[in-house]
Design a protein that fits this description.
Layout lengths: L1 H21 L16 E5 L8 E3 L3 E5 L14 H8 L13 E2 L4 H14 L3 E9 L5 E6 L6 H13 L2 E2 L1 E3 L2 E3 L1 E9 L3
Helix pairs in contact: 1-3, 1-4, 3-4
Length: 185
């Protein structure tokens, strides 16, 4: 157990330093659950489809329609429409918040912790992002059986810099949904 905590501490220190480098009234939209577009971190190698970011002990497989290596501005109209589908009501012309550097840095950080923790379950969180692009809070809706992984993911998400949401042509506060399926090894 001692080495596990030491390794997680090392991963946290590196990830927090990385996330910290990114950190640079309004309406809050509700988020509706969407089973499509989940991410699966699974052990070992095998046949994978979709965008694939590999590491020796864990694979991160994105099975959704949002590419991990694109910023919001780089998304196609169909990809943006898919993202907008996570929200119950989003008027035409409004935009949700999105990680400023895309999803890849967030996934890479969580994958490093997963290589140590081997957590099981699904991270199911909502990040409230302010009009300045900074996370205000992260709500954890449960699903992961490892408290350290949940806390780590919350730290990564709260330290990530976001493209702020746009409501009526102005930056506003809105939630960004984050869901990630973890299969411990």
């Amino acid at each position: 157990m001692g080495i596990r905590h030491y390794l997680l501490g090392a991963v946290c220190a590196g990830t927090i330093a990385s996330a910290h480098a990114q950190v640079g009234g309004s309406a809050v939209s509700s988020i509706k659950p969407n089973p499509n577009g989940s991410i699966d971190i699974s052990s070992g190698a095998g046949t994978q489809t979709g965008t694939l970011l590999t590491r020796k002990s864990q694979d991160l497989k994105w099975t959704g329609k949002i590419p991990v290596d694109k910023t919001y501005e780089q998304l196609t109209p169909d990809e943006k429409a898919f993202l907008h589908g996570f929200y119950e009501a989003m008027p035409a012309g409004d935009e949700p918040p999105f990680p400023a550097q895309g999803l890849k840095p967030v996934f890479d950080s969580i994958r490093k912790a997963q290589n140590v923790l081997h957590a099981r379950g699904e991270l199911n969180m909502a990040v409230t992002v302010g009009p300045d692009g900074k996370a205000i809070k992260v709500e954890d809706f449960g699903g992961v059986r490892d408290k350290q992984m949940s806390e780590f993911a919350q730290t990564v998400l709260v330290m990530t810099k976001y493209k702020p949401a746009v409501c009526g042509g102005k930056p506003c506060t809105m939630q960004f949904p984050f869901s990630l399926k973890l299969n411990g090894g």
